[in-house]
Design goal:
This protein has helices at about 10-20, 60-70, 120-140, 150-165, and strands at about 5-10, 30-35, 45-50, 80-85, 90, 95-100, 105. The chain is an alpha+beta fold. The two termini are about 20 Å apart.
Length: about 160
């Protein structure tokens, strides 16, 4: 994987999350940005699922707007972010998840038919800021989010260690 690259996860990825007690109900084939490498293992990445803003109805857009307009000190202001990739995108930051190459089954391509890598420095900075706040909360309250970030991370680290032996 390449940092800031957009990828698609395998169907086994959601099964793995559910096997450790997390919830991953997303049945759509949506990309995720593998934003940064984990400091815990060079083959573990922190990913953020994405969606298209124009696919949201009015009620969904109002809900997003509620979270996006909360004061910055409120952790819920970090749950989502809207930014431009190949189109107006929603980043579901509260659904952040660790991932490894094993659970990637394809790249997301841009209009030039090449692997899409986010290059916008302002977008990257804001995504990282919000992701680090989510991960900080998760670090203090293990499995606070429905996907069970901590259990998934521990499972993936265990897989990586056993593959290394």
């Amino acid at each position: 994987m390449i940092e800031r690259g957009l990828y698609y996860a395998t169907p086994e990825f959601s099964k793995m999350i559910q096997s450790v007690g997390g919830t991953w109900n997303d049945t759509k084939h949506r990309p995720m940005v593998c934003l940064i490498k984990s400091s815990e293992h060079p083959d573990l990445y922190w990913a953020i699922p994405m969606g298209k803003l124009n696919h949201r109805n009015q009620a969904q857009q109002q809900r997003l707007n509620f979270y996006l307009t909360l004061p910055e000190r409120d952790i819920r202001s970090c749950y989502y972010h809207i930014g431009r990739t190949s189109s107006q995108s929603i980043f579901f930051i509260s659904d952040a998840i660790p991932i490894t190459d094993k659970y990637i089954n394809g790249i997301h391509v841009g209009g030039d038919q090449k692997h899409y890598i986010i290059k916008n420095k302002n977008l990257i900075a804001e995504l990282e800021r919000k992701l680090f706040r989510i991960l900080s909360l998760e670090n203090s309250r293990k499995n606070h989010f429905r996907q069970h970030i901590t259990d998934v991370k521990n499972f993936l680290l265990s897989e990586l260690r056993s593959e290394g032996n």
